Structure formats: structure tokens, C-alpha cells
Amino acid sequence: MRLVLFAALVTAALPAFAAGPARPARLGLCAACHGETGIAQMPGAPNLAGQRLDYLRNALAQYRDGRRDAAVMRAAIGPVSAAELDALARWYSVQAPAPQARP
User: Fold this and answer.
1) The pTM is what?
2) Largest CA distance in the chain
3) CA–CA separation, 89 and 73 (whole Å)
4) Rounded CA separation 89/21 (Å)
5) What confidence score (pLDDT) does residue 36 get?
6) Phi-psi region of 70 (alpha: psi -120 to 50; beta: other; left: phi over 0)
7) Distances (CA, A) of 26 to 9, 10, 75
8) Is 38 left (phi over 0), alpha (psi -120 to 50) or beta?
9) Which of 24, 58, 84, 95 has the fewest CB within 10 Å, making it most exposed?
């Protein structure tokens, strides 16, 4: 009986884990250049899909507080809260990276 109950609980929880993070409210701000799924839409903008979560969190915080000097990024994320930055980092970290071009 315990095994059946455990299996039911695990099965019910799996879709929540598979779904990944919710689409961030501020995604449109980033998607204009980096794409909704992290594949850059603008020449020169880096792909964010599949980057490490800690890297993205740190980079966004550094742009916001000026340790990384990029006026466009600082203006774009200056008003974004720490929770919103975290949501954006989580979103892009779980997106599938762009396929590598074959030589």
C-alpha cells in the first residue's frame, strides 16, 4: 500500500518538474535581443539558452549594479528586482542551447 501511495505521489509531481520554470513576466524585455528561448535575435547579442544558472544570476546582477559596463543592459535591467532577475536566469538556464554549426 505504501509503495502504491509513493508511486502515485511521484507520478503526480513529475509534470511540475518537467515543465520547468514559469515564463517570467519581464521576459519580453530580454527577448527583444536574446530571443524568448535564449537564441539571440539580434546580431552581436549572445545566446543565453542553456547557460549555467549561477553564471546568469551573477552576470545580470553585475549589469544591474554597474560592475559590467554595458549601457544597454544596465538600462534594460536597472528597474528589475532581484526576484525578477532570478526568474529570468532560471528561465534561460533551462532552455535548449542552439545547435552547433558543423564545420
Assistant:
1) 0.77
2) 60
3) 14
4) 10
5) 96
6) beta
7) 33, 32, 14
8) left
9) 58
